[in-house]
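Following up on my earlier message about S-adenosylmethionine. Here are the inputs again, as you asked, copied directly from the submission form:
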Amino acid sequence: MSGFSIDWLDLREAADRRARNETLRDQAIEWTDAGDNPVVVDLGAGTGSTLRALTAPDQQPLTWCLVDNDAALLDEAERRHGETHRIEPCKADLASLTSLPLEGARLITASALFDLVSEDFLGALATELKAQSQRYPVGLYAALNYDGTTRWTPHHPLDDTVLEAFNQDQRKDKGFGPALGPDSGAVMLRLFTQAGFRVYSASSPWVLDGADQAMVTELITGIAGAVADNPDIEASALEEWVQFRLSNVSTGTCTVGHTDVLALPF
Ligand SMILES: C[S@@+](CC[C@H](N)C(=O)[O-])C[C@H]1O[C@@H](n2cnc3c(N)ncnc32)[C@H](O)[C@@H]1O
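Thanks, got it. Here's what our run produced:
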């Protein structure tokens, strides 16, 4: 399963849904409902999981502009929602911020995205949304930003070493300059506060157990792949860690920390 395949996004969606902080999600929905420009721009939309999470009964009809650089994911989002929602797919590279269709939106959303981006990207986004808010108030709802914590039961002696190596990998350039990885939530809080937004943040961990074993199995192999080249971990030790983790997927637990952030203009 590749990084952003439909299968992987589907596999994680139930855990994402449980993890999202409900208060911030409801606040984001209320903010959108209170505006007279019902347009949401979802950055790194994938197959539309944010649309699904933010669709509520009795909501005013929204136009969802789904931005992604993966045409197959956008096609899938349109296939799933084209008949029930107003969808405007937009194939674009997010790194080119000035080319994105942000103008006139009530809310910009993202999920599982901003740990991939750089501080420069977030700073430019905060500045852009602040400028746009002088014309139309626009908010940002960014869910599920990885916070660098992962706890397993049962414990294995290599857990901390693997986590440290994984967090190093999370900071590598993902197309936006050095990635914020575990710092994304805190940096968002700082940059959007400095730009003059009211910023709310809340923890939104994946809490996984035997019921999520298919997802946890993918997670384990994904983590192992990400740290395989790290010189601090011997291949045989990593293999032993993987086998231990896989042998515990049905009875063990895994908690992966995230932060949700909502930034609204004053
Ligand atoms: C972890 S996935 C999250 C997808 C979706 N938001 C969700 O929560 O299921 C990250 C998404 O960002 C998109 N993405 C990553 N880098 C991008 C870039 N430079 N330009 C546009 N989209 C990008 C990927 O194609 C993928 O759909």
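One observation from looking it over: The two ends are 42 Å apart (CA to CA). Hope that helps, and feel free to reply on this thread.
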